[in-house]
Amino acid sequence: MKIDDKLCYCFHVSKRKVLNHIRIHQPRVASQLSECGGAGTGCGWCVPFLKKCFDAERGGYVADTEMTAEQYEAERAAYIAAGKKRRT
């Protein structure tokens, strides 16, 4: 994924926005990334990727999702179609 690709499709939050939020606001736990435009509070698909970004920034290395934006979007669509999204 590239820096300007969407990480949270539910709330249209890019990877850049998440990384900047981590650097600026320095959340203590990954769940505080929900304060970044609601990221991670919709279907739940992006939560593991948000955690990966959080851990990478805290550890001083680059977070890589190891897939293209197209693959990420297709896997999210399959996740939603399978009914695995969060139930409220």
From TrEMBL:
<dbReference type="InterPro" id="IPR041854">
    <property type="entry name" value="BFD-like_2Fe2S-bd_dom_sf"/>
</dbReference>
<dbReference type="Pfam" id="PF04324">
    <property type="entry name" value="Fer2_BFD"/>
</dbReference>
<dbReference type="InterPro" id="IPR007419">
    <property type="entry name" value="BFD-like_2Fe2S-bd_dom"/>
</dbReference>
<feature type="domain" description="BFD-like [2Fe-2S]-binding">
    <location>
        <begin position="8"/>
        <end position="52"/>
    </location>
</feature>
<protein>
    <submittedName>
        <fullName>Nitrite reductase subunit</fullName>
    </submittedName>
</protein>
